[in-house]
Amino acid sequence: MGTNLALSVTFVAITIIPLSANAQNEEQAEVAPETEPNTRPIEQIEVRGQRTLVSMRYQLRLAEASLYKLFNDLNSADKYDILCKTERTTRSFIPQYTCEPEFFHSMRQEVNRNALIEIRGSFTSDGYDPALYQLAVDKLEPDSEVRARLTGDYEGLEQEMFRIATENEDYREQLIRVGELKAQYETARETRFNEKDED
User: In the predicted model, is pLDDT for residue 36 greater than 60?
Assistant: First the structure.
């Protein structure tokens, strides 16, 4: 009996409920008057707030990355490619974002590699020779000295950038955009930190 009752309830639910739902839909379709489509334009609200220094710096980095990628594709020699990276320097936990040309990066690697070979040579099975160690450490050059040795390459890089800017309109527009973003960022940064100093 219990199964018959369950089958009866299921039969009623399957046949009657959809019929009553269809009848309601037909009634609503008959009652609903035809409406004309709305041709009024949708209003848009645009909210602009002050951009934070972080968001401005992020936009600047994206624009620089795009500019350098285009420059790297268009320049005449791989040594002029601009490489950007974020790294933590010695004695600092604050990451620094730097962009350097390939020729500078290669020269700095070569200088460090040669000094490291000599530093390793100053250590023996008996200990280390302080005089050899100091000579090896003295071979490490600060970035400013490496840059000074590469003045000719930096001049070539400037000429390459100027050549590409005169020949390629897209590069020139991106260069102008990066300059504008840098100016906006520096102005906002100056304004923000000068206001805090005055209080």
Answer: yes
